[in-house]
Amino acid sequence: MALKATRFRWVIVVMLFFSTTIVYFDRVILGILAPQLEELFGWSEQQYGYIVFAFQLTYAVGPFIAGYIIDKLGTRTGFSLAVVVWTLASLSHAFAQSWIGFALARLGLGIGQSGNFPASIKIISEWFPQSERAFATGLFNGGSNMGQVFAPLMIPVIIMLLFSWQYVFVFSAILSGIFLLVWLVLYSTPEKSRFVNSKELDHIKSDQAKTEKIKVPWKKIVTYRQTWVVALGKLFADPVWYFYLFWGAKFLHSKFGINLAELALPLIVIYVVAYGGGIAGGAVSSWFLKKGKSANYARKMTMLGSGILVLPVMTVPFIDSLYGSVALIALAAAAHNSWSANIFTVASDLFPGKAVGSVIGFSTTISSIGGMVTALLIGYILNEAGLRGYAFPFVIFSFGYLIGLLVIHRLSPGFEPVSMETESEL
Question: What's the predicted TM-score (pTM) here?
Fold first, then answer.
């Protein structure tokens, strides 16, 4: 009887989905609790901007370092260290008593969580052939939406049962600890995994054999045009996502007066739709590849569609319908996830697997610097203009994806991968 291939690589995707869910549950807690905490501690809009800035600061520096550590130590050990750091940082929020205390906790959270995406993208490049990577990336990246669906459901319940916002952060730390135990029990590289047979391993390595042995020195990463394709793809998109993440609930609360419990349904709608967008973006890109289109065509056409779908969100500050606002934000969030699934996969299209962690780390650093600047700017605008100030980010950010695609295309019209001959000489 012919040997039937195992499918353990999809279990790996499930684990990455849950780690990303926890990461985004952690991140969105503060955005959901912000109206309550602002009233409790007397934060201004500008001080809230400083708290968001603190996370962006270490999340800007951390990914580049995390990418190097993960490339150096391997995905099992490197990712485990990241989980330990973000677990302790999440727990520290429960002891904060001022905006400065929350800013310090966010500094630690940014350091730890900066390892999640460099590790995850590297793991996808190790566990999947190119034709499946965009779809697998879209699946695990959907954890970002699930975390944001899970948070508005659980936060009111935890506060109602335990009468304290602090236990929300304790609960998040417990989830991270459980994930770490499962990760250590189940994860190893495909070659070493006891859950993978030879037929699945052959499938995983079917289009990796020529590149996987080649290592790009991390110090050279920043000199490649291909690195800047990924970095700029994230720079033009990630600050938009951070705006939805950290200010989305505050906007709905400020404009429509909905409370903590009432926020649940709008946020769930937004992030369930966004999750579907990530899966759809990965599936469409993979479909193009299976139809014989080049990676250049598949990624860029999908990203073009994503950029067009974001444009209507610019009208949100000017309409008075809660349902209309939620629908347009949901569409934009879905388009963002479609974009992200593809720009992450571009890194594994353009670079050997050994370098993917460093490329994603550096690119996330660049996009987080953009997030730092926009956090301070948005905080200042809202502090000065109040609700009217939301028009600025909604309108400006709606054009970011199309501008980013234009810049990327000018920089790399053909998405040429790093030359193997060049790398062999380094």
Answer: 0.78
